[in-house]
Design brief:
The complex is a heterodimer of chains A (112) and B (113). With 112 residues, chain A is mainly β. Helix content of chain A is 0%, strand content 56%. Chain A contains no helices and eleven strands. In chain B, strands 2, 4, 5, 6, 9, 10 and 11 form a seven-stranded mixed β-sheet that branches. Chain B has a four-stranded antiparallel β-sheet with strand order 1-3-8-7, with no helix packed on it. With 113 residues, chain B is an all-beta fold. The chains are: A mainly beta (112), B mainly beta (113). At the A-B interface, strand 4, strand 5, strand 9 and strand 10 of A face strand 4, strand 5, strand 9 and strand 10 of B.
């Protein structure tokens, strides 16, 4: 079993829809949680970074962390065609090192 | 502020050859990590360097190695290339403290034929 599980999709939604992307994890030592967006043939771009359980909002994006259930989510409101990309969840433990554990990514297509 | 810069962006090598990839981190960042991304395995951590020392290492064979210079620039090397080494190699930089936000470069696309 992988330490981080993510539904690979693909996921297709109409423009304006609310998108929900999810990851589960097994390692309770994970303390930092990130969402990256990756466009085709590009490097991952950091979207959201959270530490504690709860919600964090940034514009149309909301990251949610539930450490008790080992479950994280990313919500995208009013989705746009430009949101079409692969979304990767990532997490790390609280040490001095910075190695991230990634989900496999969910490919999202927003249809105009 | 310039982002993480990786060179070369694309390269094709033959089985058995070796390859060196370069990464310049964001100015002021002292930690550089390398990742391999393939369709089958996703993003996998290779190693991290901080202040010229390897601080952490993933589960890859010894053919994969790296180093970091005093200006924080880093190189990774893959010797005796195999077809399965074809991948996107990503470099990431961060200030170097635990819980940093980590920024990725555009990657180097390696094709082994």
């Amino acid at each position: 079993q992988k330490e981080v599980e993510q539904d690979p999709g693909p996921l297709s939604v109409p423009e304006g829809a609310i998108v929900s992307l999810n990851c589960t994890y097994s390692n309770s030592a994970f303390q930092y949680f990130m969402w990256y967006r990756q466009y085709s043939r590009k490097g991952p771009e950091l979207l959201m970074y959270t530490y504690s359980s709860g919600n964090k909002e940034d514009g149309r994006f909301t990251a949610q962390v539930d450490k008790s259930s080992k479950y994280i989510s990313l919500f995208i409101r009013d989705s746009q065609p430009s949101d079409s990309a692969t979304y990767l969840c990532a997490m790390s433990v609280q040490t001095g090192a910075n190695n991230l554990f990634f989900g496999t990514g969910t490919r999202l297509t927003v249809i105009p | 502020k310039a982002g993480v810069t990786q060179t070369p962006r694309y390269l094709i090598k033959t089985r058995g050859q070796q390859v060196t990839l370069s990464c310049s981190p964001i100015s002021g960042h002292r930690s550089v990590s390398w990742y391999q991304q393939t369709p089958g395995q996703g993003l996998q951590f290779l190693f991290e360097y901080f202040s010229e020392t390897q601080r952490n290492k993933g589960n890859f064979p010894g053919r994969f190695s790296g180093r970091q210079f005093s200006n924080s620039r880093s190189e990774m090397n893959v010797s005796t290339l195999e077809l399965g080494d074809s991948a996107l190699y990503l470099c990431a930089s961060s200030p170097g403290q635990g819980g940093d936000t980590i920024y990725f470069g555009e990657g180097s696309w390696l094709t082994v034929v």
